[in-house]
Design goal:
The protein is an all-beta fold. It has no helices and 18 strands. The protein has a 4-stranded antiparallel sheet, with no helix packed on it. A 4-stranded antiparallel sheet has the order 7-8-9-10, with no helix packed on it. Strands 11-12-13-14 form a 4-stranded antiparallel sheet, with no helix packed on it. Strand 3 and strand 4 form a beta hairpin.
């Protein structure tokens, strides 16, 4: 990982990296079944192994997302049978204490810029979870795999991109604005 004029060496084989909205923190998830949170200079602030969360048969951790306020880390990991959609979970952890807040089926977590939603891909659906109570605010069926979700910097819009099209939606009402 590059920071200004130096490299920051990770202590494990990273399969996913997440950066806080303000750029002050980043988390790395690795094949060694733990995550590390560092400040922007590379100083390790917190490390947590996933074994304590019933992940003894965990195969690999893939991706992570840090909430915009920096209080939560969403970790996507899969058990040995990762072809089963229920084998992949996203664990939401208070990174200050390491306490697990919620566990949701699915993977590839993305926080909305305002932190109001955590978006997770599960069983050919993109699901928007309200971070206040973890209920589903919206769900979009998507054909096949390979779809990617991104928010505009303001959070006013989000895009679903896959195959041969990009769909643009408003975040406030989840309505389709246009296809590209």
């Amino acid at each position: 990982i590059w920071y200004r004029s130096s490299w920051i060496k990770l202590n494990h084989d990273a399969t996913g990296v997440a950066t806080s909205a303000d750029g002050d923190y980043f988390a790395s998830i690795g094949t060694d079944r733990h995550f590390t949170i560092r400040d922007k200079m590379g100083t390790i602030l917190y490390e947590l192994g996933l074994e304590g969360f019933g992940a003894d048969d965990l195969w690999q951790s893939f991706s992570a997302a840090i909430s915009p306020d920096g209080s939560q880390l969403a970790v996507h990991d899969c058990l040995q049978d990762f072809q089963d959609p229920y084998a992949c979970k996203t664990r939401i952890v208070n990174w200050g204490t390491g306490e697990e807040i919620e566990r949701i089926n699915g993977n590839y977590p993305v926080y909305s810029p305002d932190g109001k939603y955590l978006v997770i891909w599960f069983d050919n659906k993109i699901q928007f979870y309200k971070t206040g109570d973890w209920s589903i605010a919206a769900s979009y069926g998507i054909p096949g795999t390979g779809w990617k979700l991104n928010f505009s910097p303001s959070g006013e819009y989000f895009t679903l991109a896959g195959y041969d099209r990009v769909e643009v939606y408003r975040t406030d009402d989840f309505k389709l604005v246009r296809y590209i």
